[in-house]
Design brief:
Layout lengths: L7 H13 L13 H14 L1 E7 L7 H4 L2 E8 L6 E2 L2
Antiparallel strand pairs: 1-2, 2-3
Helix pairs in contact: 1-2
Length: 86
C-alpha cells in the first residue's frame, strides 16, 4: 500500500507561504529555538489555507459528472487577499 503524499501543488503552496512569511523573531526580542521557529512557521502556513465554495454555471460541460456545487482549497499568498488555487 502506498502512503498518502500531499500533491506537489499543495507542497509548493505551503513552501511559498512559509518562505515568504516574515519571521516572528525579526521583531525585537530573543530568537526562538529551531523547534519554536518551525512551529511558528507551520502555524502561519496553516492559517493561510482557505476553503472555497462555488457553483458551476448552468450549462457547464462538467455539470453531469461533478454536479453544480464545487468545493476546494487555496493558499492566501497576497496581503491584499490574493488566493492561489490549482
Amino acid at each position: 500500500m502506498t502512503p498518502h503524499r500531499p500533491s506537489l501543488s499543495a507542497q509548493a503552496a505551503l513552501a511559498l507561504s512559509v518562505l515568504t512569511a516574515m519571521p516572528v523573531w525579526a521583531q525585537d526580542g530573543p530568537r526562538p529555538s529551531a523547534i519554536e521557529a518551525q512551529s511558528l512557521a507551520l502555524q502561519r502556513a496553516s492559517e493561510s489555507v482557505v476553503g472555497l465554495r462555488t457553483q458551476a454555471v448552468a450549462d457547464a460541460r462538467s455539470l453531469a459528472t461533478l454536479g453544480r456545487e464545487r468545493r476546494g482549497s487555496g493558499v492566501l499568498i497576497g496581503r491584499d487577499g490574493l488566493v492561489l488555487t490549482i
